[in-house]
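Render this sequence as a predicted structure.
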Amino acid sequence: MWNDFKKFALKGNVLDLAVGVIIGGAFGKIVTSLVNDIIMPLVGILLGGINVSGLSYTFMKAEIKYGLFFQNIFNFFIISFSIFLFIRLISSFRHKEEVQEEIRADVKEDLLREIRDLLKEKEIKETT
């Protein structure tokens, strides 16, 4: 069972996923700081000096902190948009690599056809 686990854990996809989760966590902290410390204070200034994260509504004994909720929604949109741009960038690189590989494959096929044709011509000349 230990060997099966090692094979699973050391596969490239699992390691890539682990690295992605770690980088994603760090990226999330950066975006959270960007939103909390830079963007939301600017939004508060635009709204007339209101601290958006401090907005809340008290209902009976419960405090509904809708300002923090708006801040988290803003966080989500920034993170998802950043990930979208990153995936789009990576996809464009992969697409370029695929096109280059197709061109290389076509060149190889053309060269192999030329070699085949030359060998056929040589074979015909030798038999005559």
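Summary. The longest helix spans residues 66-127. The mean pLDDT is 81.
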